[in-house]
Design goal:
mainly alpha
Length: 151
């Protein structure tokens, strides 16, 4: 914390001693250093430690009720097989989702390639027919592209 002191001093010779004493007092007050100490006795420390232990035990109890932890026949604690299996299945699920996403991207790329090849085929057929009308070729390309997008 910070403390501020306002001292009233006078330049008059008549009040010299009072001004000097005020400045000495302000200097002594300025040199005071406060040390912060936790104001906590042993009982309040013990109470906070017990509250932390209660919270930890409540979490542990919830894990037992949820089936995450089990006690073996020999008294040893461990995680249940269901919890392990659930974690394994979640990992497998995320891996399969990534695989599906990759395959979907591959399918989209192949569909794009098919559309491009179909438009090239239509252009070649128009060129073989000798019509030479490029507007019809562009129209056919647009139709093929729309058909593929609708699939």
């Amino acid at each position: 914390s910070q403390t501020i002191m306002i001292a009233c001093v006078s330049p008059s010779d008549r009040d010299f001693m009072e001004t000097l004493n005020t400045l000495k007092y302000a200097n002594r007050a300025r040199n005071i250093k406060n040390k912060v100490v936790v104001n906590q006795d042993k009982t309040s420390q013990q109470i906070s430690a017990l509250r932390a232990e209660i919270a930890r035990l409540q979490m542990e109890l919830m894990e037992y009720k949820a089936g995450k932890r089990v006690i073996g026949e020999d008294g040893s604690e461990g995680y249940s097989d269901l919890f392990r299996e659930n974690a394994m299945l979640q990992k497998e699920n995320s891996a399969l989702r990534m695989r599906v996403k990759a395959m979907q991207e591959a399918i989209d790329a192949i569909n794009s390639r098919v559309t491009h090849l179909m438009s090239q085929e239509a252009n070649l057929m128009l060129a073989k027919a000798g019509d030479g009308n490029e507007a019809i070729g562009a129209l056919i390309q647009n139709y093929i592209r729309e058909i593929e997008e609708l699939r």
